[in-house]
Write a sequence for this structure.
């Protein structure tokens, strides 16, 4: 699904076959989850492959390495150049890109001084598909921001996402919604959340959530299009009185919800602000909006 015998990855300064890449079985990332990753997309535009918001993604990757005390010296521009070359070598223009920083062999709980960088890419459709989602409120909470750096994509943090996703899938749902330590809505297992009420959008503020780049893009689109949006805390009970709801994320893009637990969102998806933003977001990543503004 992710690679074949011809797939190329970038690994510690070299482009090699994915099948030839190896990892140290004593890696601190493998044993303790001390690593950092990103999820990025490239889109096939009229001008060829375009990595969407590469600088912002690699800036977040570098910040994750910094807060986890992982030595990492690449610049955003260097990483972007490497990634375009990787796409070229894999003959991909529309792809999901996964940079991963891992740490070396170290069984202590002090960050290893050895750092490894791997960048992979593969063809991948929308992570959550195109149909409206049936979502279950998870018994698992979003991690307390005082316990870890919740705004960074640290590998070990995603055990929380795996637990909540497994729980939802086992109960027959498509996805999981997590609350924060105060009982407010936080996010999906792997995406941010927006709700619509009386034509206005609301989304949880930063602090307890992943600082989503797709989320930030949607906020920018709302400002440009005059769509009213407010960053505020809201409860599960408030969400279950909303007219509509949608998730945002690089892998998921923009995807609408059909229901949450027993509650069905009453507004037709095609009449919602989320549907409009789903279309606007697609135009944004394909450079259609930029072209329209230039005319």
């Amino acid at each position: 699904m992710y690679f074949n015998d011809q797939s190329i990855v970038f690994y510690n300064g070299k482009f090699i076959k994915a099948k030839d890449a190896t990892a140290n079985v004593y890696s601190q990332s493998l044993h303790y989850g001390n690593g950092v990753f990103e999820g990025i997309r490239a889109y096939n535009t009229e001008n060829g492959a375009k990595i969407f918001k590469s600088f912002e993604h690699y800036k977040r990757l570098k910040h994750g390495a910094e807060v986890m005390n992982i030595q990492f010296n690449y610049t955003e521009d260097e990483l972007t150049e490497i990634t375009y070359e990787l796409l070229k070598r894999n003959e991909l223009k529309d792809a999901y890109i996964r940079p991963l920083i891992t740490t070396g062999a170290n069984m202590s709980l002090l960050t290893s001084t050895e750092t490894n960088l791997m960048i992979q890419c593969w063809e991948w459709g929308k992570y959550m598909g195109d149909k409206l989602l049936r979502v279950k409120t998870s018994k698992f909470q979003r991690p307390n921001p005082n316990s870890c750096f919740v705004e960074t994509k640290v590998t070990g943090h995603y055990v929380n996402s795996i637990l909540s996703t497994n729980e939802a899938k086992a109960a027959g749902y498509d996805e999981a919604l997590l609350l924060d330590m105060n009982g407010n809505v936080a996010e999906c297992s792997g995406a941010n959340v927006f709700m619509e009420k009386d034509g206005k959008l609301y989304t949880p503020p930063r602090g307890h959530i992943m600082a989503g780049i797709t989320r930030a893009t949607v906020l920018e689109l709302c400002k440009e299009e005059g769509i009213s949006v407010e960053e505020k805390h809201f409860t599960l009970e408030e969400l279950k009185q909303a007219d509509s709801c949608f998730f945002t994320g690089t892998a998921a893009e923009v995807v609408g919800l059909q229901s949450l637990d027993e509650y069905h969102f009453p507004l037709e998806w095609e009449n919602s602000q989320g549907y409009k933003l789903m279309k606007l977001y697609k135009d944004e990543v394909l450079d259609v909006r930029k072209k329209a503004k230039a005319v």
